[in-house]
């Protein structure tokens, strides 16, 4: 490591996606701090910078998958579609970065490899891949929940003669599928978005499915000028609804139980929700995520839709999820996913019944035989929530490693801080609603809380804040309790539980008690003098 003097700042932020950009703006322009953002990519965007795969589009609707902190920004930006496509989100974030003059404090192409808390100086010492050293009293991770890619460890991958890509590290120049036999592994939100788009271009697409998934039609379309104007007139109320709801979305969850409704009424409500499409389907009844039988009515409705859409009965059956309930894993939404299996150039392979054994020079071999491929796309997801944090080798008091502190699964207080790691804040960290929420809503709440907390420390001439071990202990129990009050932990292969990464501890990571309830807890903690934290000089 070069023996150079560390560059000093008031705060270092890791990541320039939705959270890092807003955190920079809040600390620099509201508190007047000297802030440095370190970003591995060559541009802003975070998860959207890396996820450029075909069909990449947000599942939250554009008008609320956006910042609310600036009314002027809300009024001037024009979303073109109901769900924004990856390039449109990139244009939006680039616009935000330019508009608030953020880029001058962002260092691109810079990956953080090490961060250690120097107790004597009460400062974080941060080291980058290039050996650069920076220091600041506060370190804020804005690394996203889904940014550490999970490429399965399949023997023989290095021998493959064709191209292969993970969707979360998609080449900037794009990929040409024309005339190619493409294999796609994975049928989560990503695989379900990519399948119809790849199928349009490829000579042949083989989808390798381990777990069949529910999916709701997105019903994407252009946003009319009238719809845009109406939204802009109502933005304050829309944002208020997002902040006071369960998932940070601006709509109500029905008050009706799926079990109290008669069969005809229930069917009619599901049909209506199917027509509207999108993640709102989950809100059709109040108990879809809390009551098994209620959930089964939604699951069975979607199974019926799959049977109705997919012509070949064997393919339809294979596409039909039976091992988990609807939305117990993060529910995908799609544009003609199931319809794509009616195309002549698409086939579905069951790698649950016949697991993948190896990648060969010419394709992929399952226990049932070899599939010859020119290209493989891994839509195999992420080492979610903890992956990007643990990749940085973070060391707290006494040199203790975050990896050791979290050996049995993540432990945090409010998903904001970890005991033993003073002045480290984790935006949308494990233990917060984060991925169960519309992300910008969750991000803004965390950034505002962290900013207010740092302002409080400065106003009171305090130098440090650290979560107490007993508070973290109680919070972990609350996170567990909230999860077990729902059906969410029942899906065996969910990444919410870390179950998709071999060897990862199975702990339900996000806080499932609802966004509004969580935000109120955070507010109360601050109002009660940062209860559960130790503050010091
Ligand atoms: P994912 O939900 O974790 O899905 C990964 C898929 O790969 C699963 O079908 C999984 O099967 C399969 N898989 C993993 N390893 C495998 C192996 N060794 N062999 C065979 N199959 C394997 O990942 P994702 O689809 O990338 O989505 C992750 C999350 O990102 C989403 O849930 C969502 O929160 C977010 N996302 C959002 C959007 C959006 O807003 N538009 C789009 C994409 C993603 P199993 O189920 O059997 O493990």
Please describe the topology of this protein:
Layout: E1 7-8, E2 11-14, H1 18-30, E3 35-38, H2 47-50, H3 71-76, H4 86-99, E4 106-107, E5 112-118, E6 123-128, E7 133-136, E8 138-141, E9 163-166, E10 181-185, H5 189-201, E11 204-209, E12 216-217, H6 225-233, H7 235-244, H8 263-276, H9 292-309, H10 313-318, E13 333-334, H11 337-340, E14 346-350, E15 356-360, E16 363-366, E17 369-372, E18 375-378, H12 387-390, E19 394-395, H13 402-405, E20 424-426, H14 439-459, E21 464-467, H15 469-484, H16 515-527, E22 533-536
Parallel strand pairs: 1-7, 2-3, 2-8, 3-4, 5-19, 8-20, 9-18, 10-11, 10-18, 11-14, 12-13
Antiparallel strand pairs: 5-6, 6-7, 15-16, 16-17, 21-22
Helix pairs in contact: 1-14, 14-16
NADP nicotinamide-adenine-dinucleotide phosphate (NAP) binds next to helix 5.
Please, could you describe this protein's structure?
The structure is a single chain. The protein folds into two domains: 7-148 and 384-536, FAD/NAD(P)-binding domain; 157-225 and 243-378, no CATH class. 31% of the residues lie in helices and 16% in strands. The protein is α/β, with parallel strands linked by helices. The chain has helices spanning 18-30, 47-50, 71-76, 86-99, 189-201, 225-233, 235-244, 263-276, 292-309, 313-318, 337-340, 387-390, 402-405, 439-459, 469-484, 515-527; strands at 7-8, 11-14, 35-38, 106-107, 112-118, 123-128, 133-136, 138-141, 163-166, 181-185, 204-209, 216-217, 333-334, 346-350, 356-360, 363-366, 369-372, 375-378, 394-395, 424-426, 464-467, 533-536. The chain starts with 6 loop residues before the first strand and ends with a strand. It contains 16 helices and 22 strands. Strands 1-7-6-5-19 form a five-stranded mixed β-sheet, with no helix packed on it. A five-stranded parallel β-sheet has the order 4-3-2-8-20, covered by helices on one side. NADP nicotinamide-adenine-dinucleotide phosphate (NAP) binds at residues 57-59, 146, 152, 185-191, 193, 210-211, 330, 351, 356, 379-382, 435, 493, 495, 500.
């Amino acid at each position: 490591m070069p023996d150079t003097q560390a560059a000093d700042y008031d705060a270092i932020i890791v990541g320039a996606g939705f959270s890092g950009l807003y955190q920079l703006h809040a600390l620099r322009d509201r508190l007047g701090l000297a802030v440095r953002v370190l970003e591995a990519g060559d541009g802003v965007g975070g998860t959207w910078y890396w996820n450029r795969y075909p069909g990449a589009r947000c599942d939250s609707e554009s008008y609320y998958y956006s910042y609310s902190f600036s009314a002027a920004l809300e009024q001037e930006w024009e979303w073109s579609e109901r769900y924004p496509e990856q390039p449109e989100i990139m244009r939006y974030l680039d616009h935000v970065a330019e508009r608030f003059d953020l880029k001058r404090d962002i260092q691109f192409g810079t990956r953080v490899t090490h961060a250690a808390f120097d107790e004597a100086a009460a400062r974080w010492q941060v080291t980058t891949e290039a050996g650069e050293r920076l220091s600041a009293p506060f370190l804020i991770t804005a690394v996203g929940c889904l940014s550490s890619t999970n490429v399965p460890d399949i023997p023989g991958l290095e021998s493959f003669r064709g191209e292969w890509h993970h969707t979360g590290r998609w080449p900037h120049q794009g990929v040409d599928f024309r005339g190619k036999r493409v294999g796609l592994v994975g049928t989560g939100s990503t695989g379900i978005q990519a399948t119809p788009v790849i199928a349009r271009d490829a000579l042949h697409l083989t989808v390798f499915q381990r777990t069949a998934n529910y999916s709701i039609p997105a019903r994407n379309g252009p946003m009319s000028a009238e719809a845009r104007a109406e939204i802009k007139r109502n933005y304050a109320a829309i944002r208020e609804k997002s902040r006071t709801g369960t998932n940070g979305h601006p709509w109500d969850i029905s008050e009706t139980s799926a079990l109290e409704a008669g069969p005809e009424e229930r069917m009619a409500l599901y049909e209506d929700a199917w027509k509207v499409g999108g993640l709102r389907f989950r809100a059709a009844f109040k108990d879809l995520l809390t009551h098994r039988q209620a959930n089964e009515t939604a699951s069975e409705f979607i199974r019926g839709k799959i049977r109705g859409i997919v012509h070949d009965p064997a393919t339809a059956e294979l596409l039909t999820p039976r091992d988990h309930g609807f939305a117990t894993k993060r529910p995908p939404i799609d544009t003609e996913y199931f319809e794509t299996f009616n195309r002549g150039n698409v086939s579905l392979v069951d790698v649950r019944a016949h697991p993948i054994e190896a990648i060969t020079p010419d394709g992929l071999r399952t226990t049932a035989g070899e599939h010859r491929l020119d290209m493989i796309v891994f839509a195999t997801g992420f080492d979610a929530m903890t992956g990007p944090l643990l990749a940085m080798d973070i060391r707290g008091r006494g040199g203790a490693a975050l990896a050791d502190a979290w050996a049995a699964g993540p432990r945090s207080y409010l998903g904001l801080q970890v005991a033993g790691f003073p002045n480290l804040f984790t935006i949308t960290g494990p233990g917060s609603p984060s991925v169960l929420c519309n992300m910008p809503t969750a991000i803004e709440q965390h950034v505002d809380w962290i900013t207010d907390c740092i302002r409080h420390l400065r106003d009171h001439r305090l130098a440090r804040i650290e979560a107490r071990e007993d508070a973290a202990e109680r919070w972990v129990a609350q996170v567990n309790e909230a999860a077990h009050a729902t059906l969410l932990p029942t899906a065996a292969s969910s990444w919410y539980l870390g179950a998709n990464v071999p060897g990862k501890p199975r702990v339900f990571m996000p806080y499932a008690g609802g966004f509004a309830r969580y935000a109120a807890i955070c507010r109360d903690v601050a109002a009660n003098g940062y209860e559960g934290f130790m503050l010091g000089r």
